[in-house]
User: Fold these one by one.
Assistant:
Number 1:
Amino acid sequence: MLFKHFYSLGWFAQPEVVVFHKGGVNEQKKVITDIDVLALRPGTDLSWELVLGDCKTLKGQSPANRALWLRGLMNFFNASEGLLVLKKEQPMEADHKLFASSFNVTLLDENEFDEYDKAVIYPNGSSNYPLTLNQIQRLINIQVRYPKLKPLVEYLYILSWNENNFIDIVRKLIGEAQQIYQEIDPSIKEHLALILDTCAIFSIGLAECVGIIFKQYFKPSTHGQLDESLKYLLWGGRSQYDFVARLRNELIAAKRTPATPLALPEWERFMQLVRSLLEYPALAFSLPILFRNAAINVLFDQPFLGTYNSDKDLLLLKFGMLVYNYFCRAAKFPPQAREILEGEFVRKQSSVLSMSRNASDKEEGSQQSPVITNTTSITEEDSQRSDHKTPSSEHDHTPKNNIQPELPLEKNTKPVSDQDTEKPL
Amino acid sequence: MAAPDDQLTTTDLAIRAHDITVCLERTTVPEFDFISLLGMATRLALHLRGVQAVSYPTIRDVAVYLLDFPSSTVVKPVLELLAEAEFVKLDTEGLTIRTVIPDIPFYEDVFTSLGNVAISQSKISEPEFLTLTLMKKLSASPMLVDHVYQTGAEKKLVDRVIDIGSKGNYLINRRARGRSVLLSPTYFPENVGAYSDLVAANGAHKVKRVLELLKENQGWPLIKIETERAIGQISIDDTEIQVAKMLAGEGFLPPPAIETTHAGVNSFLFGPRPGKTQLPPEKRPVYEAAMALVASVRQGQLLPAKYAIRSPIALLSAFRDRGYIRANTEALEQYRQVAALRVGRIIQVENNWGELHLIDLPENREAVDMAITMVSGSEPQVSAREDIILSLRQGEKYVESLIGRKRILENKPVEIDEETQEAIDTFLLRGRE
């Protein structure tokens, strides 16, 4: 229920997020705990805000203790809010709720959740939201059928959520994808769905990156400015970048090969992508949900991005297409994998545009009727005078607000021909 | 053999083709297949930057009504060229284009990439090559027609190219001091007579050198040029000093001047003002304001009363970002013209100390950005019409509205014929029929 609730609010939600300590000493990562749902919502300052959601049964623990547990996790993830739904046999004390609320944890009884849900997502709540946990689980379980894809799946659904910051995902996910690109088969829909969901996670890091660049430079006016700022951001600062670049150069020099500057694969394309997103940076934060929806659509043979039908979605769809294009190239996926879904994005934008034009024409058509009526009445009045219009003339009337493009005025073109040549001075 | 900087790069091809196309407007030139296609493609690309998917009919209407494409039949080949350069994705149904999804590079790559693709697809004819080469030379300075004949091209071809350019409004062939001087109003939109005279008197090479030095050192004070015999750090000879003096003299628009009690009246020289392909007419007041700002900081940098400005760029950047320049005793005189143009206001803090505060309007911020570009020696970029880009981003209804507005403006009243005008004048003179 929390999963659907968060998605209905327009937040990107990941279920069953495993928590482990990144600086752990064990060879195998030790699971500390897990979060039922981790949600990302766009903040007002072009960055992500985390919200943790958990459903728990209480066994020998008070609701307040449970809230404190969640608060600890919120600190660990730097989350701004927590939502805890407790399955409890006895009603919850109001003081426990107030106590939890004082550190941004909303404490709810399982029985209260439905009302809460309908009050927040007025009036019907989130129960009918089409995305389900089973669908996400099917995405995660792709690795069962295709075990060679496990490294990528593991990073997507476990490791990426434990990164120190989201920007690291941009670099690392490309690296993970490059590890398994030879296993990708564009004819298998599960593979295409996985690529789309990979783009969803990639977009989380990308959006954060775009937000920071925008706040630093607004829209960098030169290639060099964007180039430098992106590199330092992606590698964690100038000194870190310089260190890694030097290390890399020395490794390459050992092979007696000239080194190119340290950058992501398809760097110019990445810069163009970021620069495009800087035109409307807030929209970058809608990309993860777009890609997740697309992944589910492909996996379950649903219409591609069927819920994106407004002309207001056109720019988001374009951004999605650009991100997908970039990621496929950077990860070296087979070209067909890129072409198949890029074609879907193109067709989707075209159909949205077409629907928008049809809707607009219909609206103008319905608005025309009163004008035609007026013309008719004028015509009737005119018929009493000697210079009245004939009834057919009403069909010649072109409403002022309906500009009908004519063929270009050929008579305005002035060919300059040899016959026009005058003698030189 | 042409000097290296006279050789056309693929970037030059696209920029010059664009400039010629803008000047030609709806005029078609049979010899200009390559120039027309590349020029229109560049122009359309610049207007599609950052735009979301657009239907083909809208693109066609924008191209024909707002970008002066000569006819709708050229729109498809232009879009195919852009698709070949991977600047747009096309959704097609058979041979029909339904939707155009732009992905135009944001930095200079657009010219190089388009130039490369156009070269790979089409051949440049001899008249086109000569035209493009000529435009490149004329972007730096006017030149004598005699020098064009000396490039090795056939006289008949040169005459034809000049004639096309004259009719196409991107070349002017002007007589001065008994010699024919060629200029491009695209790059020298003002003072055509004065520039012709300057070149005829001093030679194109000298004029070109001075103009190039002024472009790299915009707003350099004339007094400094005369006394130090240099523009920036580069020495110039007597003829070049003469050229600089003539640029501040009769026939040219008076350069910005600042009067101070310690240095008197000083003129600050600038390179030629950008033409319409780099600066739309509505941006001219912004450019004037930028020139006033540059002149002010050059005054402080090179002719201070006491303490010189060390970094004009840092000062202007602080002005834009912080909103004011810290108080100093010279502000009242130094920034008077800036205040007169309402870019900033001078606030007197104590005695003779004044602080220049930016009047925070979009056009003033733009003027400061332009001033920073000028002081850093960068050339203004080829520009696109912002109203078209904004309309495309907002959607098709806004584009239709813009097209409609243009059509209304184009419906000029029919001009009175000469005979009727004479009859009216005669009647008024006589006072009776």
Number 2:
Amino acid sequence: MSAGAPDLPENGPGSWAVIRTRLGVALVLLYALASGAAWLKLAASATGRSTPDEISTYERRFREVRSALPAQGVVGYLGRTDSAGRTPAEREASSLLDFKHYLLAQYALAPVVLIESTEPDFVVGNFDPGRAPSTPAGFRIQRDFGNGLVLFRRSP
Amino acid sequence: MTPGLGLSLLVSVTTGVLLIRWVWPDTTAAWWWPLGTALGAAFGLGLSSVLLYLWMLVFGPTRGFPVAEGCLLALVTAMALVRLRRAPKAVTARVRPEHPGRPSGLLAGAAGLALAAAGAAFLGQLRRQPHGEWDAWMNWDLRARMIFRGGEGWQAAFSNLIPWSHPDYPLMVQSLVVRSWLYAGGETLGGPALVAAAFTFGTVALLGAALAALRSASQGLVAALVLLSTPFFIVHGASFYGDVPVGLFLLATFVCLALDGRYGEATRRFAVLAGAAAGFAMWTKNEGLTFVPAIGAGLLLSGLVSGWPAARRRLTAFGLGLIPMLLVAASFKLRLAPRNDLLATLGIERTIDWLTDPRRYYLTLREFISHLATFGFNGFGSATWLLLAYLLAMGIARREVDRVWTRMAAVVLVLMLAGHYVVFVAMAYDLPRLLNSSLDRLLLQLWPSALFLLFMAVRTPEEAGFSLRGAKPA
């Protein structure tokens, strides 16, 4: 018996108090066991991965663009202009994907501030790979990095 | 992990532990290293973040910071050594378990295995998502990059041209990531991962150590076991969001107030530390701003139980600890942070419309009940139902010594939930979507503190008249 409880009949071996507390601890152990199994499964599934994660892969596309941009300041961003999809749900998903690409571009190109606008002098075009870039009016292509990435500069 | 990253954590934790050691009231409560270390680690992280912010205001995010912090560590070490030499040998009270027998081998083994499994899962999650989840890289990591890469122009990280990145969010997580990169000498994905691991496992350590000190070693192990087994806690901890970090500081506040409940008549230091911890919570997420008034109200209401002189003493000391962080947070909000996007889009008329719409109250209440009931579901059952069953099995410990604290903590947690409820009703534009995406995270912030409260209140296995095999009585 523990220091906190004297060995009385109501909490002696086999008493309801003891059974109840053992059940309480057993529940916690079972809960921990279920989570532990899930943890090991998660760890094992991650160990088998050989491909890099989506963000690192996406970010790699922007490495050269970053070095071609000014070190600081505000830069424009032009993504896909047509949200593909036949149903409203598909169009919403497509629009969300475009927004994600913009966020990823900002994440990759920090510390410049990337805004979805053609107001700044430099504009990064992030299009579907293989698609011909559409140059915004008043801009010229400063550099085409391939893979759908283009840097536009305002024409003098 | 580069040596620089390891050093960044070591300096932060060591400084925090030594500072806690320095202010620890030895004549009232004996130093107990597991609790002191866990508490010190939390304070060290908070302090490092604030120091870097202040440094950046003057010098920017420069490589001189680690050197300056190293000098501070040397100073704190000297202060702690002097304090130790002068410390009185006689100790009048002890912060030690009242059932100080060794914990049950079964529980210790289970907690050890759970820690290993959760650690493996945490690493697995990092491998799958080394940049964290969506909100992490688009808010916290992006801001850290903008500050670190920005050099002299680091303040562009708070541009209002990118409101979706929430540039008004407090700087705890981002600054610690920047700090880790300054120590490492460059950007590495290990930086945010280390910060996330420190907060996640630091929370488990603080919960376990505090309960071991204030209740019993077995109680600390059971609580740590539940926290380590809460699926969302580990997975979300590895996602680099700010919810687990803010949860650590909420917990640290409650732990310090529980210590104040035990030793507050002889020393104000624990209440001052509680104020500082609440300030760090405010410096971590905007939700911390609602925590401070909730704690204030809880402390005030505690006067009903403890008497007004004690409540006034507690509130004054808490406020003393809070003031420095209030000033730091105010300087950030006034100097750098743009207006909060949620507040910026609010209109009086629309808010009144929402506040007078009973459907919003019903929907929010329904989701609160549903998310609370299923929180921590892991296939076996939800953590909420598990703990309810555990509470029924063990029973409540009617302990006069923690009566004031227990009621105060319960009031604060209820006020926090009520505050979140009102914010959802009054401010959420797309209510179902926001409830779905944020409610579990808000509950997670309170989860370690709720566990602490529950296990402070529930009888320990020993008190429940149950001898676990392997447990050694005192």
Number 3:
Amino acid sequence: MNEPTEDDVPLFKKWSTWYALVIGFLLLLILLFNFLTKHFS
Amino acid sequence: MSRPDWIVLILTLLGMIAYGLYKSRTSRDMEGYFLNNRQTPWFMVLLGIMGTQASAVTFLSAPGQAYTDGMRFVQYYFGLPLAMVVLCITFVPVFHRLKVFTAYEFLEQRFDLKTRTLTSFLFLLQRGLSTGISISAPSIILSSLLGWDIVWTNIFMGGLLIIYTVTGGAKAVAYTQQLQLIVIFGGMCVAGYMVVHLLPAHIGFSEALHIGGKAGKLNIITTGVSEKGFDWNDRYNMLSGVIGGFFLALSYFGTDQSQVGRYLTARSLSESRLGLLMNGLVKVPMQFLILLLGVLVFAFYQFNREPVFFNQSQIDLLAKSKYGDSLVLVKRAYDVAETQRIKERTFLSAAGGQAVADVGPAEQRLQIAERQKGVYKATIRRWLKDKDVGGDDNDTNYIFLRFVMDFLPRGLIGLLIAVIFLAAWGSIAATLNSLSSCTIVDFHRRFSRKPMTPEKEFRLSRFYTFLWGAFCVAVAQLAYNLGNSLIETVNVLGSLFYGVILGIFLVAFYRKKVGGVAVFTSALIIETGVIVLNVLSRKGIVHLSFLWFNVVGAIGVVVLAELIQVCIKKRP
């Protein structure tokens, strides 16, 4: 089994893609929550 | 509790201690004891971070919070994913490069000894006290609901975990947190299924959400803006959640050793980053689901009798007070109103919005019954607030567990009580480990003139872990004796110190020209200012929610340190 090195970025080429994924997912959740708030109010 | 519940509870807790001891074998030095020899994979870092943040009160309080105030509490976590990104870019690479044991070691390298010592001291003070409270709060709830002795409940809540935490250090903490979270999520999922299962036959999951939504419980997104403008005293809205929550999360995950200690155990920088980023992905949905449980419990109580007050021990207190006779009358009238309310609610939901002739009058009768219910509940709260009674008029934390005790089947009650214990243990174990590491690394070893062997450091680390455990259990007992006022005070304690500690770290990372004297002086001044602000806020002179203290503290330290640095340079 290969030991991970300090520079390993899993799945993507850059860490910035991971950061964008986390922020994008948060925005998606906020949009979903906004929809749920309006739909069930 | 029934015998099957006791069996499930005892077996779960003993099993956890045995597992912790089994995983206790570690190298007999500080690197092994505090950092698991930096060998932890990312998913265990993630579970460690989550298990440390989620205390027993998280699982007790959040469903109750949704039941009373709706789901807007989830906004409190919106800043967290953003903070994870900033941490991965700035804080984590520096901590890994310097191979520090504690976050505060870095401050001595960047500034000076006094700044490191002050920051570590603020952490020990705040974290030691608040851990005592995190033992006390669930203990009070369990002892009230189950009639257990508070001293023994405190010892079981905060004491038993000391066995494996002292023995196995960070490794035992990480492995037990992994198992604890599996049991916790399993228990909560079963509870969620049971709530929906216990709803009337014609009410499904979607209808339950509509019931919650109509009552304003699905207020997930709120702006905090009213006709008078933005309400700075409003705790949970988009702005306070994103900005206040961001500063709080940045401070908690970046400068609180109980969290830093989790991702420093990772076997590489990328595993630390991955653990934190995954936390940024899963935390908000997880909190959403816990809150949703509260909305489902709310829907359940629309068709079942809701207690006049969820904390029965306070009703017993009222019964013995001058309001005893009046209480009997109010409870009788409340029962009549509840019977009427449930009858009308069941009829209306069965009618399903169809144009049945009786719907109009039934809706009117429902409104009257709900109004009466509200009046009786308010009366009980008013009596509890009376100085002669000295009761606690807030029963939010009791809602979920009361539902569990009254309606869930045997065995499952024991499992959900075990969930409360395990949630407390996961959080407290990590904290004891971090309190011990700061005590020995930032104080004992730093100020000791005699060099110590690794074996002696290891034994001392165990000793300090035990000592902090005993201290926290003692604080928990003290908190119970002093009553609720202390619990409220210590809940705000984190926000009083976190902002300033974060400000020190922000200067360290982003303001390279600012030195130790400037940051130390500004930290002392701003800390005093934040404490004064809290006093003014409690007296109602300033209207500012405690979440904003983090922002004030952090920005205050950065700006003032910069100004002081300019003055120092200008001085001849």
